Structures are given as structure tokens and as C-alpha cells.
Amino acid sequence: MSDATFSRRDVLRAGAALAIGATFAEPPKASAAELGPEPTSWVDSAMPEVTHRMIETNDIRLHVAEQGQGPLIILCHGFPECWYSWRHQLDALAKAGFRAVAPDLRGYGRSDRPEETEKYTILHDIGDIVGLVDALGAKQAVIAGHDIGAAIAWQTALLRPDRFRAVIAFSPPFRSRGFGDPGPPTTLMPRTKDAVFYQLYFQTAEAEAALGRDLRRTFRSMFYSLSGDGPPPAEAGGVAPGMVPRNGDFLTNPMSLPSWITESDIDVYVETFTRSGFRGPLNWWRNIDRSWELMAAFSQAVVTVPALYIAGDHDIIVEVFQPIIAKQSTMVPKLRPAIMLPGCGHWTQQERAPQVNAAMIDFLHTL
After folding, report:
1. Which residues of 23-41 are buried (b: 16+ CB within 10 A; e: fewer)?
2. Pairing mode, if any, of strands 164-170 and 307-312?
């Protein structure tokens, strides 16, 4: 797609608020090892309707949260999240007559965390999800995804329409090869002697350490800054949006959280990343060029199943990819009219749960 090419300005703005997640503070009190071995199945008293279990797939174990009976829908979270980002959808979908399953992607939460960096490509994630459907005893499923989960969902539906009868994507639109056609993604990313683009920074050991030093501050910052409640992207301290300084602190720790997320919700993310760390999640970015290379055979391939795209009109991703969003139906011929949520930022299904739930259920009932 010719309109998939980034300008330097677009690339800079795409990661504007994400860069502030890197900071330096006190380490968390508990290590992953101190949290103990994983059970095989359990129920959390905080959400007793949701069943948790470990499932073998694609030579690893995935932790899944599951609720409901009926046609299967798989919910793929984004970065840096976990199954819990779908907490509002699990209940709504179950009550509407669906079997909703939200895994922790490989490297996240309670799911296995392969040591080898090269085992975190987009094809590994797609293989995990296909194997998950098999393990759940289903012949077909609908797949939904947010952020990197949307990239996984789009490409899974593209490659396996025999197993995935529809796709719902939040935030990123469909892009050929998952990341666009023009060239290896990192070749589009700027760097200077003073700063580096956030996706390049995310590939470093420094990012892994910095993001994990004060988990509560990291998550409070990210959820606020990229939401519809956060400030508009702006240059600060002479560093362009989307760029992380090679030294310094650009964390925005809000005085209070937006109304759609609570300190108790932050507790869940802190516990999750205390357990898993950031290495597995960041390995997605360390493989971004390799993933692009592996998808070469599917350049310009068309998504043939019914599709729904939902995003917030205050999501920085939407602003950057507006031309692609407007034309993505050429690559997704069964795409329904896009649903744009006023005032909503990047964390779509968390910020606007009632509207998202209604849109998903309406779409699913038409299949």
C-alpha cells in the first residue's frame, strides 16, 4: 500500500506519549520468583465468574481467562497489558451468549516466557492463537485484538480464514505484512546523539530496566498519557515527541487517574509485570524487522473474512494512520463501517467499555 509510508513527522508522533514510560525509581518489592509456582487452574475471588487455566499450545503454556458458553471469541491484548485489559468484555460477551477467552500473550503475565529473543515474532504469536483454538476444542473462532494484539488479530485472520471467521481490531488499522510494505520498520525510525525513537529504545536492556523500576508509576503514566484524558502530544525539554532521551526522566505521573481506571486496576498490572518482567513483552519490538521479513510472502494479501474496526478519535495511532484507515477497505473488502469513539484515546476497550461491548456484540450477532 503506497499510503503506508511514514513521514518522519508521523513516525515521531506515533509514539509521542509512550516514550514517557521510561523512568528511574525504586525497584518493586517482590520478584517474579517470590510469587511462587503457577497453578493449572483457579478462580479469583475478585472476578469469580472468570475461570483461569494454563493451556498447552505451540510448545508453550498460555494463561487464559475464560467466561461464558457459545461461539468462541479470542481477545488479544496490547503492550504493555495482559488479559485484564478485556475484563469488561469478558462479562458482556458471556452474557450475550459467547465464550470469551483472553490469553496472556507469550512473554506476558503467567504465560510462558521463552528465553530466546527470536521466539517472539508475529508468526509465533499467530501459532499460539491457532493452537489455542485447537486446545479449546473449537473448529473456528472470532479473533479480536488491541494495539499489538490488533496486528496479531489482523494477520491471523489473513493467514487462517479457515479457522477465524471474523476479526475485530482496536486502534491499529490493517497494514500489509503487519507493519507496512515500504521497508524494514526500524529503517523509518529516527535517532540522534541525544535521543532515540521509542521503538528502538524498547529494544534495549536500558528500557527493560527502566520500565520495571517503578511499575506503579510506569502504568499510571502510560494509561493517563495515551488516553483521551491525557495531554496532547507536545515537545518537552527540547526532545521531539516519540523520542526518548539517552538520559533523563520524561515520566508524567498524574495526580489522579482517569475515571475509567482505578488504583485497584493498576494493582493488577503491577502484580502481572512483577511476575513476568518486561523482557518478553519488549521482545516483540526486538523482532519487528524479523517479523516484517517473515511476512514477505503475504504482501498485499487481502483479509477475506468480515471485519470491524473500532478506535478512539483521540488515539495518536489514529491520527498517524488516518490515510490508511480511510482506505483499508481496499485490503479488507468485508470491513464494516469504522466506529470512531469521541474523546477516546488509545486504551479503547477500557476507556469506552459500554460502547465497545455493544459494538462487538452487534457485530457478532450479524455473523
Report:
1. bebeebeeeeeeeeeeeee
2. parallel
Q: Which of 192, 204, 202 is nearest to 222 (CA)?
A: 202
| DSSP-derived pairing of the beta strands 51-57 and 60-67 | antiparallel
How far is it, in rounded angstroms, from Cα 76 to Cα 325?
20
Q: How many CB atoms lie within 10 A of CB 56?
A: 12
List the catalytic residue out of 104, 112, 147, 315: 147
CATH of the domain at 33: 3.40.50.1820
User: Among 367, 355, 363, 365, which Cα is nearest to 89's?
Assistant: 355
Alpha helical stretches, state H, the chain: 8-14, 87-95, 122-135, 148-159, 198-201, 205-213, 215-225, 263-276, 279-286, 288-294, 316-320, 322-327, 348-351, 353-365
Distance CA 308, CA 7 (A): 27
Cell of residue 260, nine digits: 475509567
Q: Say what the pLDDT of residue 243 is.
A: 77
**346 belongs to the catalytic site:** yes
What's the residue count for the chain? Answer: 367
User: Per the confidence metrics, is the pTM higher than 0.70?
Assistant: yes
Q: Which of 174, 131, 165, 134 is nearest to 300 (CA)?
A: 174
Structural domains counted in the chain: 1
What value, to the nearest 5°, has the Cα angle with vertex 23 and ends 21 and 28? 100
Residue 3 appears among annotated catalytic residues? no
Q: Please state the rounded mean pLDDT for residues 307-322.
A: 92
Cα gap 259→282, rounded to integer Å: 28
189/212 Cα distance (integer angstroms):
24
| Terminal C-alpha separation, the chain | 28
pLDDT digits (tens, 9 = 90+) for 179-203: 988 899 999 888 888 888 878 888 9
Containing domain of residue 166, as a range?
A: 2-365
pLDDT at 36: 55
Question: What string of DSSP letters covers 192-220?
Answer: -SSEEEHHHHTTSHHHHHHHHHSHHHHHH
How confident is the model at residue 55, as a pLDDT? 97
